[in-house]
Each structure stands twice: as C-alpha cells, then as structure tokens.
Amino acid sequence: MNNFEFYNPxxxxxxxxxINRLGQETKKxxxxxxxxxxxxxxxxxxxxxxxxxxxxxxxxxxxxxxxISENPKMSEVVxxxxxxxxxxxxxxxxxxxxxxxxxxxxxxxxxxxEGDLWKMVYSRHDDTVNIQxxxxxxxxxxxxxxxxxxxxxxxxxxxxxxxxxEKSYTWSVCMYPKVSIVDPELTCSLPPFVTAxxxxxxxxxxxxxxxxxxxxxxxxxxxxxxxxxxxxxxVGKVLxxxxxxxxxxxxxxxxxxxxxxxxxxxxxxxxMHQLAHVLSAQYNLPHGASLTIIMPAWMKYFYKTRxxxxxxxxxxxxxxxxxxxxxxxxALEGIKRFEEFLKSIGVPTSLKDVxxxxxxxxxxxxxxxxxxxxxxxxLRSRPPASKDDVINVYKLAI
Length: 398
Known about the structure:
By secondary structure, this protein is an alpha/beta fold. It has two domains: 11-187, Rossmann fold (3-Layer(aba) Sandwich); 192-396, Up-down Bundle (Dehydroquinate synthase-like, alpha domain), CATH 1.20.1090.10. The protein is 46% helix and 12% strand. The protein contains 13 helices and eight strands. It has helices at residues 22-27, 45-57, 74-87, 98-110, 192-212, 218-240, 245-258, 271-283, 287-302, 307-318, 327-344, 361-372, 387-396; strands at residues 11-14, 32-38, 61-68, 91-96, 140-144, 156-161, 166-171, 179-182. Strands 1-8-5-4-2-3 form a six-stranded parallel β-sheet, sandwiched between helices. Strands 6-7 form a two-stranded antiparallel sheet. Strand 4, helix 4 and strand 5 form a beta-alpha-beta unit.
C-alpha cells in the first residue's frame, strides 16, 4: 500500500428533512448569502422558495443567483463574483447538482482572487507554471439535489471556458464546503434520465480508481466495489418509484463516498473523465451521459493491460463465474454486463447515440491532448495513454 495524506473537514448533515436546518446552520457562518442555482429550475422551484424562507426566518439576508447551466461556464462564475462584490455577500449556498456546487465554489474563490479567473483552472496539464489555484474563498454551504459528483464533500470544481470551449477543473483546500446538508428527499423530483446519469457518474468515480488505481489496495477496492454494488442495487428501485426516499438516500451517500477521498486516498487519476470532459464541452452533453459513452469503450480497449483487475471487477461487481471460461472471457463478460446495465437504465452508450460520428474523433482527440496530456506526452493512467490510444477509445465508442 502506498503512502498518502487524507484530509476532509466538511461537516455533513445527512437525512430526510434536514433541509430545515439550512437557516440555522448558515447563520453560524454568515449573515448575507448568495443562493446559487440553475438558470432553469422549474422542477424544484418550490424547494428553492423554501430555502429562501428558511434563511430569512433565521435572519440571513438572501441574494439569489439562478444562472448556472448544466455544464457551468466561466462567464457564469464571473457574473456570480460580480454580484457577490456588489451586494457584500459573506457566505454562499450552492443549491443543485454538481454543476451548481462547482460553480458556487469557483464564485466563492473568485471573490477573493486577483486576476483572470481562468488561471484558477488546470487548463493545461503539461504547463502548471501559469496555473494559480485559489488560496482563499468565502465560506460555502452545499445543498445537493443530485446524487452524483460528491462535490458537497470535496474541494474540486469543473468549469468550461466559453471562449475556447475547453473544460477542465481546479482544486484547493479553501474550496471545501463548511457545511453540506444532504437531504435525499430533495432528489425525488429528478427526471428519470438525470437520475440514471447521476448513478452512472457515481459508478464512474470509483470505476476509474478501481481499474487504474493502486495495485496493492484491497480495502480501497472493496470500498469501490461496495459503492458500485450499492448503485446497481438501488437505482432500479428509484427509477421504478421516484419517491423511494430510502433508496435515494443510499444513492446519495454512495455518491459522496465515491469522491470524498476515502475510496482512493492519494491516487485519483481520472483518464476516462478527461475524454468525457471534452465530449461534454464540445457537444453540451450531461456529464454523466458523456461518461456512459466513454466507460465501456475504455474498458474494451484497455482490459488486457490489467487483466486481473478487470476479472476482479467482473466477478465481484457483476458476479461473473469461473465457468465462463478464461480470464479474458471473464473480463469481457463483465464489460458486457456493465454495458447492458447502462442501456437498461436508459443512458447513451455510443457516440452515435448523441449524434457524434467518426469524422469528429480527430478534433476530440486533439482537445484531450491539448488539455489533459502531461509533459511526457501521455494521459495519466495505468498504463499511461497515448494520443493513438485516445483515438482508438473514441473509435470503439462509435
């Protein structure tokens, strides 16, 4: 097992009905809040109205900023920063899914940041000299409404540059939320497709660690497998009964454990995400949907490079028996069952499903190379991925 450091200071308040503590918890941190949410929020307008009411009843002044898209843009962050400065905000509340929470973190950091806000973002993995991640941020309270990114308990944020359509991320200790109120009842209004994409996103976070992480990490692997199994068991219940709060709670906690650092401390490589980020930025796809396209293709291309780990995935997560045949046949059966699961919950599994064809692949690969390749000319992974590897993964996704 490798050496690592682990730190996570987020105060999580978890459970049905806990949204009612929003006002009192926020009042401990600040007196004037920027309430951040989507530009299109009709499906949970009542919840936002309740949040405003709870805050005002606790003596917190509220400034609303409902201007975040499903793939948050730097221009939206810039507008939020300007609003905070104009209104004298001293605490921010992210009320929404990963897009809203990520944008809220960036706004909170941007208020105290000097210079071009895009310089906060690791937009070139081969040149970190010109990257200046934030060192300070206003305090943030998170109210997640989508069980997917775990942004409510990590210090990371993803954003797209409007001008260049480049999508990348930053992280900093200063962006950890102070408090996250995780109320699974808030996820009951999610449309089925969003629920399915969210489940796949949670799986993606631990699947990447499982397949490209430490070699000697039995406990990490068990946690990762436990997260995946929980999602497999619970997502069907939620799709059949959207008001199953117990199942919603299991999905919510799984999404947090997947990406709060505990499932793979010290080694968080996400090569599949790098291909998916480019795809979602160029075609404005939901983040989870871009991952459901990339994951099976990546696995089909790379399974031989870590065959025993793919066999482990097949056997422990999809209960593939030894009677299937050779190790290679077991691994391929696991990939097949995973892809069948994704199709069963109604998410896309090929580029053609979202209108992308083979002629688009060179441009996608160029973007991955430009943004995500290191100084060694490879994408960080186990094994490292070349540009030809990226092209071939995209081709398998057609």
